[in-house]
Amino acid sequence: MRFTRHLALAAAALLAACAAPGPGPLPASVGTRGAQPATVAGAQVPRTHSGPARSWGEYKLRVAQRIMATSSGETFGGELPDPLRSIPVLQIHLNRDGSIRNIAVLRVPGQSPQTLDMAIRAIRRAAPFEPVGHLPQPWQFSETFLYNDDLKFQLRTLVEAQ
Question: Which domain holds residue 135?
């Protein structure tokens, strides 16, 4: 049931792709390790999209879907709680081949600061992403992680696409 919901969200998200990222300020940076193929329980997560993303909005949706797919034990579905427990915001800088160049912290959560490291690990686990050389520079975008009281997350990109 949960997988079906995520699949439906993913399909809706692709249809709603239209947002473009802004460059935004870079108050803090977090270094990255070498990119590894995304895996779930030792199996590589397939990329099911045909062709390159046509816009940054579509690309960002694909990345969000991939992060959710590679972090299934750390996510939740359904309505967002009010208030949310923690909201880290990260900016992901990419190399031409879709590997992570850097992850910059745009918002450190005031409550449950450990969610910042959890979000960074989720991004790294999903990397590398699709190549971005065909998209306009800068090759970067931001993602907002929305954590509930159980410290499980949804991604703002997918919530907004619903």
Answer: 2-161
